[in-house]
Amino acid sequence: MAKSKTLIKGNYAIAEAAIRSGCTFFAGYPITPQSDIPEYMSSRMPEIGGTFVQSESEIAGISMVYGAGACGYRAMTSSSGPGISLMQEGISYMASSEVPAVIVDITRYGCGLGDISPSQGDYLQVAKNGGHGDYRCIVLAPGFLQEAVDDMPLAFELAEKYRNPVLVVCDGSIGQMIEAVDLPDGIKDHDANQFEWSIKHTRNGKHKTFCPPFYYDITIEENDRLVRQKYEDIKANEARGETFYIEDAELILVAYGTTSRICKEAVIKARSEGLKLGLIRPMTLWPYPVDLFKTITPKAFLTVEMCVIPQMVEDVALAARGIAPVYSFATGSSYPSVKNIIEEANRAIAGGCKEV
Amino acid sequence: MQGGVIMTKELKIPDLIISENGFCPGCGHGVMAKLLSNIFVDKHIDDIAIAAAAVGCGCMIKGTFGIDWVQAQHGRAAAVASGMKKVRPDNFVFSYQGDGDAGSIGIAETIYAAKRNDNITTFFINNGVFGMTGGQTAPTTLKDQITTTAKNGCDYNVFGEPLKLAELISTFNVGYVARGSISSYKEMQKTKKYIETAIDCQMNGNGYSFVEILSPCPTNWKLSPIQSLSRIDKEMMEFFNCGELKGNGGSSC
Q1: A197 to chain B: nearest residue by CA?
Q2: Is A174 part of the contact surface with chain B (CB cutoff 8 Å)?
């Protein structure tokens, strides 16, 4: 008998996938549209002998994750726009101290208070860092719930492999929609003592200090070199993306998250009408999958994103430099429709759009 | 004592002190490093103690005090320590914080560690100034004290009255709260007992413990080390009453 799927709300599935990835520590604060994650964790963590803390703020939540992560445990927090802004200091500290952590960002609309509806307006914050200094976060951007579930174990593995914070960024619709998914089988047994670098319970271990390494262990010039090397390695090895009908495409759409689902539909519909569209779907926002742009020569690229001010299009323009002109379709607070995407693509091909 | 043999005690560098410190002459942090080292060895927690360090002068203790440290963000040391304790409950976990860190930018994290009665210990080093940044007004700066942001002396109409953090923490259902001083041998012996009691509190699982320590900052007070100790006795201890505020009988003195 085939394994049966679980019909489950996005945020719950993400939380359960984290648990099954061996996450035993969660600290977070309520904010719509991610509050289902701390709610789920509050009852699920005690069942598996893990820890749930409803922290007094997102600042405290990320700080607790910092402490637990330094001890080698799989620790995570989750939030949305305003809360992710508050976490930036902690994320920067973890990057500098090389402490792994997973941060789930269920994005919402607007700057400031904004609103609780789904949006992709936090692209620049997540992909370019909201915190201070020379660091990057690996940013996984699932296109649908199953991928979000599959990204959770991957997020913890990458966080540990590079000793760096990893963001899993889902727009609010992925968090809020109910879909059928395959959850990971069983709960991974994570050994927090396997790492040479972590704070352990064992006595007489080597004295460890989690702070910028150049304070005690290496010179600041060596630190420059190691930081640069680490992020070059990530860039070379961890860019992920999907292509869809790009080989013969006249115009290639570029979209991530929920928007990419609509773009896929637009590609199929347009091709049935004789317009050869394709799609590049970044699955990581950093590192950006630039190589996917290098194998093809369409007439144009059209970035489709659900934000007010075009954001990802800046990365598309860099990736498509010297290949073809890049156009932007930023749909503000609304989802794009298949019809609008095809109209915009036709306009771009006909030269009726302003190049980015 | 047998047959006229004089018992001697060899003075040696405490076990946990792994290198010279970078504190100014007469600074209380160097004294605290030595005091904590001796107490940790006596209480047999020297190899299970792990900590979150504040941002400020206090964070320089990481280089001299040889345990595992996490350098917390400014003000967040109690939250970082709580995260460490939740996953490593058998370790002795403490935060080491100054007045700017725990009392100003991090007061929410400090109070919430107490509100949750997390089984960690906070050592709160109160010297009444932001030391590392050059002597600005702190939440614990006393009236008329000259700082770089109160050049004519601290005016309560501008800055408000000093924060009595130990008193504030003692209003919560926590394990132990005390305030001591390191201004003299006599005061240091009392403070040593408070620290030992706080350690017992955590190791016995009795919840949050908080020890405030009145500490000298000769550099930013523009006083000599000796004058600084005398200022603690004469001015700070007048405002900040020392003693046990909660737990262990709660004998405030």
Answers
A1: B68
A2: no
Place of tokens 């006249």: A250
Residue pairs between chains A and B whose CB atoms are closer than 8 Å: 121
Q: Does B98 score more than 70 pLDDT? A: yes
- Cα radius of gyration (chain A): 21
In what side-by-side order are the strands of the sheet with A209-210?
A: A209-210, B68-71, B49-53, B92-98, B121-126, B209-214, B176-181, B243-246
User: Which residues 92-131 of chain A have a CB within 8 Å of chain B?
Assistant: 93, 97, 99
Residue range B72-94: average pLDDT? 98
Residues B215-231 have pLDDT tens digits of: 999 999 999 999 999 99
Are B62 and B53 spatial neighbours (Cβ–Cβ below 8 Å)? yes
CATH number for the domain formed by residue range(s) A6-237? 3.40.50.970
Residue A211 to chain B, least CA–CA distance (Å): 5
- For domain A243-349, which CATH number applies: 3.40.640.10, 3.40.1390.30, 3.40.50.920, 3.30.160.20? 3.40.50.920
Q: What is the mean pLDDT of residues A104-112?
A: 96
Flag if A53 and B86 touch (Cβ within 8 Å).
yes
> Would you kindly state where each structural domain of chain A is located, as residue ranges?
6-237, 243-349
Nearest to A208 among B68, B81, B85 (CB): B68
Does a structural domain hold residue B67?
A: yes
Q: Is A214 on the interface with B (CB under 8 A)?
A: no
Q: Is A57 on the interface with B (CB under 8 A)?
A: yes
Hey, is the C-beta of A70 within 8 angstroms of any chain B C-beta?
yes
Handedness of CA A324, A238, A93, A34 (dihedral sign): positive
Does residue B93 sit within a domain? Answer: yes
Of the candidates A109, A183, A114, the residue with the CA atom closest to the CA atom of residue A146 = A183
CB contact under 8 A, B112 and A56: yes
Concatenated DSSP letters of A259-294 = HHHHHHHHHHHHHHTT--EEEEEESEEES--GGGGT
Contact predicate B125/B180, CB 8 Å: no
- ipTM score over 0.90, yes or no: yes
CATH code of the domain covering residue B83: 3.40.50.970
Sorting pLDDT into bands at 50, 70 and 90, what band is B251?
Answer: very low
- What are the Cα distances from residue A99, in Å, to A64, A65, A92, B72? 12, 9, 10, 12
User: In this structure, is residue B184 part of a structural domain?
Assistant: yes
Alpha-carbon dihedral A346, A348, A351, A353, rounded to 10 degrees: 130
A-chain residues near B72 (CB < 8 A): 63, 66-67, 93
Please judge whether A210 and B69 are an interchain contact, meaning their C-beta atoms are less than 8 angstroms apart: yes
